[in-house]
Design brief:
Elements: H1 3-9, H2 11-31, E1 44-50, H3 56-71, E2 77-85, E3 88-95, H4 104-117, E4 130-132, E5 141-146, H5 152-166, E6 172-178, E7 183-188, H6 191-197, H7 201-211, E8 219-222, E9 225-228, H8 238-242, E10 245-247, E11 254-256, H9 257-260, E12 262-267, E13 274-277, E14 280-289, H10 295-308, E15 318-324, H11 325-355, H12 357-380, H13 387-395, H14 397-416, H15 421-445, H16 448-451, H17 456-460, H18 462-479, H19 482-490, H20 506-520, H21 522-539, E16 555-561, H22 568-583, E17 588-595, E18 615-622, H23 628-642, E19 647-652, E20 663-668, H24 672-687, E21 692-697, E22 703-710, H25 712-718, H26 722-733, E23 736-743, E24 746-753, E25 769-772, E26 777-780, E27 785-793, E28 797-800, E29 803-812, H27 818-830, E30 839-842, H28 844-875, H29 879-887, H30 892-902, H31 908-937, H32 942-952, H33 954-967, H34 978-1006
Parallel strand pairs: 7-24
Antiparallel strand pairs: 1-3, 1-4, 2-3, 2-28, 5-14, 5-15, 6-14, 7-12, 8-9, 10-11, 13-14, 13-17, 16-18, 16-19, 17-18, 20-29, 20-30, 21-29, 22-27, 23-24, 25-26, 28-29
Helix pairs in contact: 1-15, 1-19, 2-12, 10-11, 11-12, 11-13, 11-33, 12-14, 12-18, 12-19, 13-18, 14-15, 14-18, 14-33, 15-18, 15-19, 15-28, 15-31, 20-21, 20-34, 21-30, 21-34, 28-29, 29-31, 29-34, 30-34, 31-32, 31-34, 32-34, 33-34
Length: 1017
């Protein structure tokens, strides 16, 4: 099939293809979705169960263990992790990677059924369990709102107004408000009124709960109608609560609640969450766009809406972006377009320089059309423009241009030999179209292991495989259709046919001599190549290893953790001081602080911290990303000195999955004390290393608790049980929640407590009065409690796959990679003797990268098999494919040299570059071997054929390498793609020489071509 001839003979069809791709590219560029990172499904859900009053150990044994047993029956389960805390169980359920996003709703429904069926096995007072599976929503437009001088009610009204208006913006899916003052209704009951009226505390609580409970009142048939009986229940105002009538025990008398209590509606005294922005109290507006939307357009619409609302909100209210994903995406796409334009410009400039402006224009137009067509296909396939898909276009650039260069160079040579443009195009395309197609498919298959990997990393990088596949296939199609047509229009050769040998010149002559020497001394050449390759594999051990690189977003986190159980007000006090300290540092643009839990998920790779009163997080925005390491070090040093009792960590945002501690040593076993002993040994080893920082244990310290020693005999005589004691102490300290007041879609807790002057400290607990049912009066607590004692107990118990697991965590200092420091401590940590029944494993980046590589490795055999079969099908023989595959391992030489010289790590993106390099190398080798075979078929002497074919490939190989290497220069400044760019640049620089020396030498060896030392070409 002569595709090129058909394209030239029927130019209307070819121009129709050009028009479709060009206009489709414009349409695609205007309408394609834009995101920061590719969407991937967070296959996790959290099951939260409250068990008020229980210790962490009781929660673990009575709640967590039961629920884990039920959840473990899920066939889709990959991993189950849990945290047992006083009064609360948190179980994280992770689903197997083989299930995609469309299957997750069904999986979560099954999880809910398992959890629901298990509720009957939970102890009294525990539950109901709540399954949260939507915490993976990304709120990319994240704003802080400050309203100094306004009351809490006014702030809540402002938040409701902003949320309501933003939900009306096209493309907005969700709006989340956080950090608002919690509203509660306090029922404050002085002790003397309870005593004077003889009103049991339990009666007050029960009356409020019973009055405010929604219950069914039945139904009745009236004629042909079935009418429900509605029982109005619940309070409709604070005054309605005050007028509640409560019966006195042993009497028919009733009193109003207002006679013994003061009822007020106000903000919660001890907040559950506090947010500040630049030192001022704030709340956050987190906006999420609908799926497959152009986030840039949605973000601009949200910004415009907020600007228009400025005149409708009170004076002094300020809205500042903490993170504006639409601006980040817009800047990233603009940078890409600049990089793409630079790359295309470099390609055209290099081609014009070495092959003339006509060839440069032909190949450049083909390249631009390929990019436009790829954007068109991306839009049709609903692949958004994001970091990975845009990077895929640049990764593929070298292979995209290679196809067109081979055809254009072949046309040029044929025309120099006297052929007309029409025939030259036909001959150049027909001789190489099928080898180029096979090489293109092989190049695509090199990425299939990543794109088809079933894990999160594979899902994250799927667009890379898809875009590379689309662009490369399109580049082949255009190379054999559009390039010949443009070549016929533009290519002109002066003195065509005047010379029989188009390969004259100094460079060609020098290469002939080098190749002649290599063929004559083929064994020496082969041994030299082997030595260089083996040395490079050895030197690869000195290359730094990493998973995903740190983000180039000018922002970093400061995580602050007080001992477990710390009062949130103490945490807030410290964070307020830290806010001011950080804001005064040079290079800091803004500081958003979150106390009590993490922020909303404003990036896909950000993992919010679950509620914890001792936790605070600062999101620090800097003026320049290059200041992050310096500022983070300064913050860490100052905070470690000023707050020695706190764990302080600083960390950067990361690209891709795998956030969290970079180094994690996990000990698993049944006994908490033994786990802590093992963890202390590991901590001591790590503490000696100056290349580690942020050393901590994930169980935190034991918490001090007060335990009343209950006298059951005396309590029985007084008619008092443990629940009565717990309720009395709860009332005396923080207050008892006695239901909720419903107002619209809000539920406001009703809390019964004594006035502030009577809320007791620890020292006065034994003086508290408790109602005795047998004596029908209040008696001192000390009558039923022998004493109050203190003890330290575990208040955070973590489990992994149903085993207690304590992790020692750390991060490498700037300039060191996790793989590097792990290698330095691994032997010492693994030498810690483990008692029977205890296990150890590495987590952190080692585990994440290992899982990703294992998933990739499971796909690679099939990918390589397909690639090998294609190479065999191209030639219909075995020795030619063998030559091609023998060359591939040698490509590591330039990669190692490039990474060592630049001190870049071999990251996951560098692996992508290596796969791209392998595809380009195999394409060059396939075309060269095919050309040797073609020369032999035309009757050339074997040695002559090898030399002539090799010489004919100098220019296309050199130009493809030069254009690709120079086209990678714009990526050197990109944190995500820098190591990939170095890998391709260094690898290609060596691979170009490799192809032109190793392939002819191996061909001569395998086909036993004898070469006289004095032959002439």
């Amino acid at each position: 099939m002569d595709i090129a001839r058909a394209a030239i003979n029927k130019p209307v069809n070819t121009w129709l293809l050009i028009l479709i791709l060009f206009l489709g590219g414009i349409w695609g560029m205007m309408t394609i979705g834009r995101l920061e990172d590719p969407a991937f499904t967070i296959k996790q859900a959290i099951v939260v169960t409250q068990y008020p009053g229980a210790t962490a150990t009781e929660v673990e044994q009575e709640v967590t263990e039961n629920l884990e047993s039920a959840i473990q029956q899920l066939p889709q389960l990959k991993r189950i992790m849990s945290k047992s805390l006083p009064g609360r169980s948190e179980i994280t359920v992770e689903i197997n990677d083989t299930y995609d996003g469309s299957e997750m709703p069904q999986v979560w429904d099954e999880l809910r059924r398992k959890v629901s069926d298990n509720q009957r096995l939970l102890p009294s007072g525990a539950g109901p369990s709540v399954v949260n599976d939507d915490f993976g929503d990304v709120f990319g437009m994240f704003y802080a709102v400050t309203a100094p001088g306004y009351s809490d009610n006014e702030i809540r009204d402002i938040a409701r107004f902003l949320r309501r208006e933003l939900l009306l913006v096209d493309g907005v899916a969700k709006v989340e408000t956080r950090g608002l003052p919690d509203e509660v209704i306090y029922v404050e009951v002085p002790n003397d009124r309870l005593i004077n009226t003889g009103m049991p505390l339990g009666s007050v609580i029960d009356s409020i709960q019973n009055e405010n409970t929604v219950t069914t009142a039945g139904s009745s048939r009236i004629g042909d109608m079935h009418i429900n009986i509605r029982n109005d229940s619940g309070f409709d105002s604070v005054s309605n609560i005050e007028s509640l009538r409560i019966g006195q025990p042993g009497s028919t008398d009733q009193i109003s609640l207002v006679d013994i209590a003061n009822v007020s509606r106000e903000s919660r005294e001890i907040p559950q969450e506090i947010i500040r922005f630049n030192g001022q109290r704030a709340f956050t507006l987190a906006v999420a766009g609908v799926a497959d939307v152009n986030i840039v357009e949605v973000g601009q619409a949200v910004s415009a809406e907020l600007a228009s609302l400025g005149s409708e909100i009170p004076l002094g209210v300020q809205m500042e972006p903490i993170y504006a994903q639409h601006e980040v995406v817009d800047a990233a796409i603009n940078d890409f377009m600049i990089s793409l334009a630079m790359s295309v410009g470099i390609v055209i400039a290099v081609l014009c320089l070495f092959m003339g402006w006509r060839v440069g224009i032909v190949v450049g137009l083909t390249l631009l059309l390929t990019v436009a067509g790829t954007v068109f296909l991306m839009r049709i396939a609903n692949i958004e423009m994001e970091r990975i898909s845009l990077g895929a276009l640049i990764i593929a650039m070298g292979m995209l241009v290679d196809n067109a260069i081979v055809i254009a160079e072949g046309m040029l040579i044929n025309m120099q030999m006297g052929m007309k443009a029409h025939k030259a195009a036909s001959r150049a395309a027909s001789r190489t179209q099928w080898p180029l197609l096979g090489a293109t498919v092989i190049g695509i298959m090199a990425f299939s292991g990543i794109g088809l990997s079933p894990d999160t990393t594979g899902e994250f990088l799927f667009s890379l495989f898809a875009v590379i596949g689309m662009s490369l296939m399109l580049s082949w199609l255009l190379a054999v259709t559009v390039t010949p047509l443009f070549g016929e229009y533009l290519l002109k050769v002066k003195g065509a046919g005047d010379q029989n040998d188009p390969y004259k010149g100094v460079i060609y002559a020098a290469y002939r001599q080098v190749l002649k020497f290599s063929l004559v001394h083929r064994w020496l050449a082969l041994v030299t190549l082997l030595v260089v390759t083996v040395t490079s594999f050895w030197a690869f051990g000195f290359v730094k290893q990493s998973f995903f690189p740190d983000s180039n977003t000018p922002m970093f986190f400061v995580d602050y953790q007080l001992p477990q159980g710390a009062d949130i007000r103490a945490t807030a006090r410290d964070i307020a001081e830290i806010d001011q300290m950080v804001l005064e540092m040079d290079g800091v643009e803004s500081v958003a602080s979150f106390i009590g839990q993490g922020a909303s998920r404003f990036m896909l790779t950000y993992e919010p911290q679950q509620p914890n009163t001792g936790y605070g997080q600062l999101i620090v925005a800097t003026t320049d990303r290059f200041l992050i390491d310096e500022l983070a070090l300064e913050v860490r040093q100052k905070l470690s000195a000023a707050y020695p009792n706190a764990d302080v960590q600083t960390r950067r945002l990361v690209f891709g999955p795998g956030a969290g501690a970079k180094i994690e040593a996990r000990f698993m076993g049944p006994d908490a004390k033994e786990l802590r002993r093992l963890a202390e040994q590991a901590t001591a080893i790590m503490a000696e290393k100056d290349f580690l920082m942020d050393l901590r244990q994930d169980w935190q310290q034991r918490e001090l608790v007060i335990v009343p020693n209950f006298n059951e005999e005396r309590a029985r005589l007084a008619g008092i049980n443990r629940n009565d004691l717990a309720q009395t102490l709860d009332f005396a300290t923080q207050g008892v929640t006695a239901g909720s007041y419903r107002e619209g879609d809000e539920s406001i807790p009703i809390i019964i407590r004594p006035p502030a002057s009577e809320r007791l400290r620890v020292e006065g607990l034994d003086e508290r009065l408790i109602w005795s049912t047998s004596e029908q009066r209040y008696v001192p607590v000390e009558q039923v409690v022998n004493s109050f004692s203190t003890r330290a107990e575990e208040t955070l118990i973590k489990r992994r796959n149903r085993h207690r697991t304590l992790a020692v965590q750390a991060d490498p200092v700037p300039g060191r990679t996790p793989a590097e420091v792990l290698a330095l401590i691994r032997q010492d940590i693994e030498a810690i003797p483990l008692p029977a029944g205890y296990d150890f494993e590495w987590g952190g980046e080692y585990e994440a990268s290992g899982e990703a590589q294992a998933s990739l490795g499971s796909q690679l055999p099939l990918s390589f098999l397909v690639m090998f079969c294609i190479s065999v099908l191209i030639f219909g023989k075995v020795r030619q494919p063998l030559i091609i595959w023998l060359v591939v391992p040698m490509s590591i030489c330039g990669v190692v040299a490039g990474l060592l010289l630049t001190q870049m790590p071999f990251s996951f993106t560098a692996l992508l570059g290596f796969l791209s390099l392998s595809g380009m190398l195999m394409k060059n080798a396939i075309v060269l071997v095919d050309e040797i075979d073609a020369q032999l078929e035309e009757g050339r002497e074997s040695t002559d054929a090898v030399i002539y074919a090799s010489v004919s490939r100098i220019r296309p190989v050199f130009l493809a390498a030069a254009t690709t290497i120079l086209g990678m220069i714009p990526l050197l400044g990109d944190a995500f793609f820098a190591s990939m760019a170095v890998t391709i640049m260094g690898g290609l620089a060596f691979a170009s020489i490799l192809t032109l020396i190793a392939v002819p030498v191996l061909y001569a060896l395998l086909f036993r071509i004898r070469t006289a030392s004095d032959y002439k070409v």
